[in-house]
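Hi there,

I know you've been waiting on this one. I reran it after we fixed the sequence typo, so this is the corrected version. Both the input and the resulting structure follow.
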Amino acid sequence: MAEVVDISSIIPKVGIEASMATEAGTSGSSSSSAAGSSAEEDFYIQCDAPNCNEWHEGSTLSPPITPLLASTYETWHCPSCTPYHGPSKLKSVTSMRQGLRKKRRIDFVKLNDPAALLESESNNNGIGVAANDVQEIDFRAKLELRRKKGMFQNGMTAASTTGKGCCLKITSGKNEFTTKYVNTHGFNQPVLFATQQPYQIGLKLPSKNFSFDTVAKLVGPYRKTQVIDTATQLTTEYTLQEWVDYLSTPEQERTRILNVITLEYSQTPLGKLVREPQFAREVDFVSQCWPKTTEDLRRILDHRSDNNKNRSLDDNEDNDKSKTSKEEEEEEEEDLTDLLEELQEEIPRVSKYCLMSAAGSYTDFHVDFGGTAVWYHVYFGQKIFYFIEPTTKNLKIYSEWATNGTSSSSGGGGSKKSNANAFLPDLITAAGGVVFEVQLKKGQTLFIPSGWIHAVFTPKDSLVFGGNFVHRHSLEMQLTIFRLERKMRVGKDYKFPFYQKLMWFVAWDFLKQRDDLMMMMQLGDKDKNSVMGREQQVIQQICGKYPNHVLLGYKALVKELESWSRSKQKITTDQFPENMDVTKVAIQLGELLTKCVAHLGVNTKKEKASIKLEKKEKKKTTKQEKKRHNSQISQEKKKPVITPIKCSSSSSPPANKKCK
């Protein structure tokens, strides 16, 4: 059974119940009190939310809070409390906040005119389209028409019959999809767990009777989230309480069909109730390679060249000569601690998403950012996926279609109009490709590999828990998608956060494994083998640990890292880890992977020779067996044929005779 957790024990107190916990009459004077100096750089502000009362340094907030700005608040809520207790409340004096006009909220429940989506203070809300380009599309009708024409291949049926040419493998059981299985077979096709026992794949979920309303309480009723309008594929923002109110409206009374697919909740109480499937946790680069401690950062620092090795993180060459060794260590530890805090703020949080979709919702064809793989569990409701395999040809068609401005997934813009009104499945099938249709029911879990193009239709109101992860088994495809996103000029909000920085840590982690193996061999080497001998043993161990497709993926990463290390573009250099010699990492990883691939080449030749010899022996054995068989047939033909004597049916044979 899935682990049951008492939800009420972790829901933050909100509203009247919380208000009773503190004395009434809290005023803005407490918020604007300063702890210490009244100078702006030393200004602190206290949160007025019940049960919080934490002090925050004004200059570290976003936007920064100054004494003057603090004086305009009647009650001020810190960033952690805002999702649960609402935004800070201003004083009623209108002159206090001149120019800070509240943005108009688009109410989709009452919305009838899709052009209103484009309304904003500047007449340009960043959607990237003009009012006359807004179109309402009946995606349900489009899909149904093509289904009747037989355009979609039933992936589930194909998987249970031939297993060839199908995008889906159906599995059910505890140990059928593990890291060991993927090491052998790879992860190149979507995998569906039809079982309704999530614990069998290490997935932890909330207890039963979990609803949309519970999500809002746990993540915060005032938390804002992006909402997609299905007919136009344009977006706006709702608070979660507004979103729950919309979903509470009977389906027939909803004027628009809306969808929420980007609610990340890992740092909320809901994050404690959900744990990713075991496979996703075991292979995720973010959890495996992103630095977690100052010791991790110190090892990276020590890996730098000798000229930089003893410098501080600020590369200050004018260090105070009078500092003692202890003082230098304390200063370095402080620098590393500050850097670790920055990295913890930057860590990509993409492994836990909550998707809440109204019946009739549709998410257009897209590839998940950075070529990430996806885990996807239907808590209740139903989903229909439309998959397109990421072949070179299909990705080319997709990129051209997505950059026309007709797709909501690209985040970029383009001037091409040739396929402006095209539906991607039409383009794919016209080019000889296949579109697979797969249905997901309540309790089922789907794994989507890197690069697969897909769209999702929701037949009825659904709640889904899912997440993204980058892993070593599809590095080549992930880098292909990364380059494709750059070519398509995908917007920053649609990209994997700090993707390049993560890849540098991935490279460093691989080198660290080599160093650890070398150290272990050096300590346990009684025969004092040469360094070259130990290196060869390390290469053999690495090649034995990782399958060929993984090592070839790291080899592809080397090519990207070498290019990034030479780049002068700010968008690339900003993602260089602060304490890492990126050039040295790229060179050393390249040298290591060259040796590994060469070792694989030798083994491959030996395997081919062995297979060739085996085939030759098999052919020789078959020839000998055939010759022996023919000889037996020839001998049978030479034997005399004895014709039996038929006995008359009317008389018995003589006593001294027998019928033959």
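Quick highlight: The chain has 22 helices and 16 strands.

Best,
R. S.
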